[in-house]
Amino acid sequence: MRSLVNLKxxxxxxxxxxxxxxxxxxxxxxxxxxxxxxxIPKEQKVDNPAARTDGMGGxxxxxxxxxKDAIKAEASTxx
Length: 79
Description:
Structural class: mainly alpha
Radius of gyration: 29 Å
Oligomer: single chain
Largest sheet: none
């Protein structure tokens, strides 16, 4: 099946298609349309920055550990 929206047509084709589909709208209530392939978003992998040990991810992990250690040391000295 063709898609509902044709982005590659001319203004005249768009007008004629819109007019015909408008006249046929009562029959189109029960029809289905497939989206074009480029309209469907692709799956992207997202890395967990906390799991990285290289680059800036590793630097932030080390900074966080140092802060936790400093807080524990400060808490233990002041009771």
